[in-house]
Each structure stands twice: as C-alpha cells, then as structure tokens.
Amino acid sequence: MVMDILRFATAGSVDDGKSTLIGRLLYDSKSIFEDQLEAVERTSADRGEEYTNLALLTDGLRAEREQGITIDVAYRYFATPRRKFIIADTPGHIQYTRNMVTGASTADLAVILVDARKGILEQSRRHAFLATLLRVPHLVVAINKMDLVDYDEAVYRRIVDEFTAFATKLEIGDLTFIPISALHGDNVVERSNNMPWYDGPSLLHHLEHVHIASDRNLIDVRFPVQYVIRPHKATDPELHDYRGYAGQVAGGVLKPGDEVVHLPSGLTTTITHIDGPNGPVQEAFPPMSVTLRLADDIDISRGDMIARPHNQPRVAQDLDAMVCWMTDARRLTPRMKLIIKHTTRTARAMVKDVHYRLDVNTLHRDERADGLGLNEIGRITLRVTQPLFVDDYSRNRLTGGFILIDEATHGTVAAGMITDAR
Description:
Blueprint (H helix, E strand, L loop, with lengths): L4 E8 L5 H11 L5 H13 L15 H6 L6 E6 L4 E6 L7 H8 L4 E7 L6 H12 L4 E7 L8 H15 L6 E6 L23 H7 L12 E3 L2 E3 L14 E5 L10 E5 L4 E9 L2 E2 L8 E6 L10 E3 L6 E12 L11 E6 L2 E14 L6 E2 L10 E14 L10 E5 L6 E10 L1
Parallel strand pairs: 1-3, 1-4, 4-5, 5-6
Antiparallel strand pairs: 2-3, 7-14, 8-9, 9-13, 10-11, 10-14, 11-12, 11-13, 15-19, 15-21, 16-17, 16-20, 17-18, 17-19, 20-21
C-alpha cells in the first residue's frame, strides 16, 4: 500500500505558538533525531528556559531564534503509519504575506492558530482569507494555549462562534475547530483529559484521517508536457522508436486506450501506454508524474497540453487574475512587461490594467489603486504574447495558477490565480 501525502501549512499571529505546535507534532510522533532534541534542550537551558523549547526545532534561521518569530517558510517532514506529511510553517507578520502565499499555494490543509487568551485577531482573519483565496480545501482552527485559560470551554465556544460568523464571508469548504495546548501536548497527538467537554479528535488524528483524494480535479484531463523522451542509444529493439511525453498529471484520469487531443494543434490520437517511475501503469491521476506514449506521431514539445477532445481548457491570451506582488525592487504598474510561467509554458506578458488593490484585513477593494507594492494583493489583467491553456483557479489550482518573472533579473516577482480568461 502506498501512503498518500498530506501537505499542510500553519499560520497565525505572532506568538500564537505555530513553531511550538510543529515541534510538538515532531516530538510526540517520534520524528526527530536524538541529537536534534539534545541540541534544542541545550539551547533552551542556555537561554534559561524552564522547559524544552520545541519551537527551536523549526525556527531554523538565526534571526528567527533571536527575535522569536518565524520569517521564512520552513518545511518539515514526518510520517505516521497512516500517512506522510509535509509541513509549511509560514510567517505571521503582514510583511511576510508573500511567504504565506508561497507556503499555502500547494497545501491540502491549513492550520490557523488562535491564542485562546486573545481570541480572533486581524492576522487570524487575514490568514483565513489568504487560505481561501488560495483555495486550500480544508481549514483547521487550532485554539492554542488552552492551559492559560484553565481549559475553559466557554472561551473555546466564544472563539468558535466569532470565527464561524467571520467564515460566512469566505468560501470555506471544510472547517474544523480543535482546542489544544502545544506546550503541554493537549489534543495535539493524544486526546487530552484536561478538556473532557471536547469530544472531537486530536489534531494529528484529524490530519491522518481528513479525506483529500477527492480535492483534486479528477474530471478535467490536463497533462502539460514537460519533456519529450527519445532514447538515442537504445540497445533494446523495442525502444528504438520510443517517443514518450513526460509530465505531471494536472487533472483527470488517463488510461491506455483513451482518446486525447493535443493543444495547440487540435489533433486527436490515442494513448497506447503509460509509463510510471517503476514501469507501466494502467491509470494516471494527479499528482502522478508519468510518461505517455501515443498512437500517432504528432509534433509535441514542452509547454503543449494533452486533454480530452470534448473537455478542453480555454485557449487564452488575456487573463484576469488575482496576484500577490512579491518584491520591493519595483511596483506592479500598468504597461509593465514581465515573463509568465504557466504550467510548463513560458511566455512574455504585459500588465494591461490594475482593477483594484485588496485590503486583506478588511476585504475592501481600493479601485483607485494605480499599482501593487510588496505583499499587496490585487486584481489585474494580463496580455500574453502566445496562447496559454488555462482553467479558472477555482476549478484547477495547477492550470489556474502562474508566476510572474522579472525580465532583467529572472527573479519571481508575483504569484497569480486566474479568475477569467479569453
């Protein structure tokens, strides 16, 4: 049995205990090495702390340890007998919004920490909005530091009611509340005896059992071609004429015998074989990386798309999108020229219009905005020099997302989510 992988991002206000929570998950699931634990214990003792500071397991940058905050996106990996996990520990500060966007863009689930003493803060609302903007399918609100409010059920209920009222303004598919104490481990890996009034699962139990298989688009077949495989020195006669098209399945289910269409040519053909990393497979679905072999010789290259004849993505050069601007070197302004990378296709693009800048705290749209600065989010229209094969981001995060690249520095300056295309 192949274990699936759950990617989840943690977010929350400063000092809500994100890094401590991840440290507790790693520690209680026995996913850290003895020398790592010894180093953390030694550092905690040197700092005069009364307990082992598990936050030091994730706050890897020296500046993070000195300031006691998370700055960069820290990725951590652990596994249980039921599932593998990739954690993106994202920063809470508003000036690191771009890091939050980066960490949550590929997440199946987001854990938003709320300090039980402080309740729902502006940053809590902002992180919930960003998670829904990025179409993270599952949201967990972990109400932390319950030990500091004497495990009071009334405090928990008040925060649940307040967040639920705010959530009605957002598109949240699956919302779960869990009261925890990351410091003491209550309801993190094991159920806590200190909160008998709570009858739900522990956080780890929820992470192990949340259903993610149906979150990916299994209806619309989308296969962006990444590489054409032609063995030049094939000793096996069967491989002499081998031509395969490698890539990651971005949507739908592919099987040998399926009729498919190649874009941009519009020519149809049939899949004859699907090769996986360990040999032939009978079906391929997201996020598998495979090589397709087709019945007909078609001129196919990197950046092309394979889809179903009667279910094709839109072929578009004008894109309406929500973007997060990620650099302070320059502002995003109309007429700006950039490079767009969408799935495996790269093209030049120009900003046609800036429609509004969005205040992520109040959700107010500033339609007088003439551009976007660092960490700002807004809606823009792009004109692309060659057609892209796109879906709305709400339908497919892979074919609906893109990045923008500075032509001069080749640095990534923005992440975008397509809302409309023509």
